[in-house]
Structure formats: C-alpha cells, structure tokens
Amino acid sequence: MSTEHLDVVIVGAGLSGIGTACHLERELPDHSYAVLEAREDLGGTWSLFRYPGIRSDSDMHTLGYRFRPWSSATALADGPSILEYVRETAQEFGVDEKIRYGHRVTRASWDSDAQRWTLEIPGQAPLTCSFLLMCSGYYRYDHGYTPDLPGIDRFGGTVVHPQLWDPELDYAGKRVVVIGSGATAVTLVPALLEGDGAAAKVTQLQRSPSYVLSIGRTDPVAAALSRWLPRAVADPLTRAKNIAQIIALYQISQRFPRFVRGLLRRATQSSLPEGYDVDTHFNPRYDPWDQRMCMVPDGDLFRAIRRGDAEIVTDTIDTFTETGIRLASGRELEADIVVTATGLTLQMFGGAEVVVDGEPLHLPDTMAYKGMMLSGVPNLVYMIGYTNASWTLKVDLVAEYVVRLLRHLRDRGLGVAVPERDPSVEEAPFLDFGAGYVQRSIDELPKQGTRAPWRLAMNYAVDAVSLRRSRVDDEVMRFVPASAARVRAEDRAAG
C-alpha cells in the first residue's frame, strides 16, 4: 500500500492552523492538504483552557481573522465565544472537513533527494508532504509550568493549575489563593467572585507585580461604525484603528517608558481605594511592554479589590502549611484552594522531533528567517504570533506569505525553498521579552539576527511590508527545481 502524499500538511487546528487552512482554501484550491490535530477538538487554547473567566487578552478586532472580521463590538471576548468563532470559520471555509483528529506528529523527517517530509503519527500510517506548516503554538498542552513550591505536599486543600482546570471544582464559599501575576491570574481573581457559586475570598499572591490596564469590554468606536457604515467598511476601519493603537502604545512605551509608567500608575491609582499601596502591588520592576501588559475588562479586578472580596499580596512563599501558605514576611494566608497560575511550559512544534537528511535539528543552531522559517530547514514554516499585539496579526501575514511562496514554487517548477544563513549576521536571542516562560526556555529556541530578514520586527506595520510586498526570491532564499523523482511520486499519488 502506497504512502499518502499531500502538497501541504498543517500541524495544529487552533487559531493559527484554522486560519492558515482558510488561506489555502481561498487562494490555492489546487493544493492538497490536511490539518493534523493531536486532540479530539479544534480551537487549541480556546478549547483546552476552561478555567473561570477565560477570555482574550487582546482585542478581538485584531485577534479575529482579517478575512473574516469579528462582528461584535465586544473587545475582550470570553473563551466560548472565541471557540465558536473558530468553529464557524472552519465550517464556513470547509476546513473542518480537512481536520484529522487524534493525529499527533512525533517526528518529521526531511529527505532532500525525495524533496518531501515524512511524518510519523502513532497509530497511523506515515504521511508525506512537500511542505510542512507548524501551527501547533509554543507551549505544552499536557501540563503547565509550576515552580518548586516548598511544603506543597503538606497542604490539605486542593491545588489546581489553570491549564488543567476541573470544571466540576466547587469553590463556592471557599477561600482561594491564586499564585501568579499574569493575564491568567488577573482574569481568575474577579471571575471566581462572580455568580451564585462565588468564592468567599480570593487572594492573588504575586512575587512581583505586572502592569494592569483597564480597557472597555466593548469598543465604542466599533459599535458606532457598525451602526452608521456597512460592515465591509466598518470592520476594516475598526481593525486599522486598533492596530494603530497597539503600535502607538508599544512604540511610545519603548521610547518614553517613564512617561508611560506614570500614566499607568495614575490610571491604576484612580481605580483603587484611597490610600491603596499602588507602588507595592502595581508598580513593576520592568518598563512598560518589556513584558506583556495585563488587560482587565471594565476594571473588573479593581472593582473586586474595592469591594474587599479580592486582595493582592506581594510577597514570597516560605512554605505551604496544612491550612494555607506561610509567607517570607511571616504572614499566613489560609486557603481551601490554591490555583498555581504560574505560567506555561514552552514547547516548539508540538514536541515533534525534526530531522533534516538524517540529522536531528538542534534549534539553537538555526536562525529565524522573517520570524517564520529556519535557516537550513527546507519547506517548513512555523507560526509564532506577536508578544506585543494580537497573535493572529502575525499569523495572517505569515499565511499570506506562505500562499505567495507556494504559488512561486508551483509556477516555476520548483521543489524546495530554504533560507540560507548569512555568516556575517550576528546572533541575538530569539525573543527580546522578559516573560518567565520565555526566559526559562530561551536557550532552547532558535536565534534571531541583528538585521533583516533575520531580525524579528515585532511590529505589524514593518511585517506587513516585509511579508506582503517583498520578493519571495530574495538573496537569502535558495530554491531547488522539483526533482524528477518527486514529480513521478506526486503523479502516482494523484492517480
């Protein structure tokens, strides 16, 4: 029995994989493809995470796809709404019929003679493809990151990580401590205090604070534009407005950090009770946007603090006790439930081993080309979104570039595209970003370079020009004609 061969394989049916598949459906209907999903559902993050309050921390008018705009005025949408949006998109473009669930790729091997990837999938026959798109995100799905927490085995209550949240967990009337200071923590704290099953008290325990910015749950400009203009005009205007805001906030933060820090401090202070110790609990040690800001819809976290239902404690853990946590200051936090919102475990390519002509790929030996390909690795594109803006902004751009690249290969009878590293370009860390999950794994990631196209712009405006307008046959990309062996094999597969 012959091995199935496809033009393109997309690994991952999350926000990135579904969006990329839609681009292929729309622009390259002559290319055969499949989406391989390790789990039994699409949606990635938005079907995996089920903790209370799960929502976007980017506005939906830029987190939504450019080709299928988010139609609601809601800016920070809840997880179920985002999942439904992804499902509807997959159905509308027929992508749902191309997803193969329960297909976890454990090894991807490139053969230069055959000009194809061979994918190993436990329980399935091997699958080959000419081009491989890694859309599996950047973190492990089976467990999150939990630091060493002294004495945690002594604790008599319940400990849960948000990534593995049990929907049946009963926290009504309980004392809950949420350990962490990122987006998940600031989402959980007010959410655990809502509704009939609310917790009695929620304490956010953080080692150091993050920037927390209150934004409207709905976008008034989007609402106004949608009332007065057709969607075909209103949606692009809203998206452009939000992109401009994102870029402006980031650039101003980078150039005038003291000014932005002052603005954020005053905004936070005005949202909290008089006399609140803002400098202890909401004044980070780093400059704005050196790490991602935490967005809270309509200031829900601040409202919970004002009511007295929620408390922020900035301290370090001495040890867990049978009934809670003893802090370095000597204070004890009593708890029935402890939530370890302590971050993600970084993982590239869904944990799959990548082999090129018999040699296992060592990511730190490679350099990232345009933040989407790797030096010396043929016919492979990966999706990594922005750290300072909506993830999907970069995904859409990369998908558009992939379409251009695949069309270039097809139209010119080419079989291989591989970026060749320039030895004169100096190395730099892959991400200039202070988040813990990045810093813990920075030595396991590729390098970036000190100049384009090896430097990650982290700027949508720059990338929009680079990925939409620049030539795919630049001085860095090496192309190889399609081999006779590959053409014969593909003809057999088609027949």
Provide an overview of this structure.
It is a single chain. With 495 residues, the chain is an alpha/beta fold. 30% of the residues lie in helices and 21% in strands. It has 14 helices and 25 strands. Strands 1, 2, 3, 4, 5, 6, 17, 18 and 21 form a nine-stranded mixed beta sheet that branches. A five-stranded parallel beta sheet has the order 7-16-8-9-12. A three-stranded antiparallel beta sheet has the order 13-14-15, with no helix packed on it. β1 (4-11), α1 (15-27) and β2 (33-37) form a beta-alpha-beta unit. α5 packs across α10 (300-307) and α11 packs parallel to α13 (460-468). The chain starts with a strand and ends with a helix. The mean pLDDT is 90.
Give me some keywords for this one.
14 helices; FAD; oxidoreductase; 495 residues; nine-stranded mixed β-sheet; alpha/beta; flavoprotein; five-stranded parallel β-sheet; monooxygenase
Give the SSE map.
Layout: E1 4-11, H1 15-27, E2 33-37, H2 45-48, H3 60-63, H4 79-92, E3 99-101, E4 107-111, E5 116-120, E6 127-134, E7 158-160, E8 175-179, H5 183-191, E9 201-206, E10 212-215, H6 220-228, H7 231-255, H8 257-271, H9 278-281, E11 294-297, H10 300-307, E12 310-314, E13 317-320, E14 324-327, E15 332-334, E16 337-340, E17 353-356, E18 359-360, E19 368-369, E20 373-374, E21 380-382, H11 391-411, E22 414-419, E23 427-429, H12 436-439, E24 447-449, H13 460-468, E25 477-481, H14 484-494
Parallel strand pairs: 1-2, 1-6, 2-3, 4-17, 6-21, 7-16, 8-9, 8-16, 9-12, 10-11
Antiparallel strand pairs: 4-5, 5-6, 13-14, 14-15, 17-18, 19-20, 22-25, 23-24
Family: Belongs to the FAD-binding monooxygenase family.
Keywords: FAD, Flavoprotein, Monooxygenase, Oxidoreductase
Cofactor: FAD
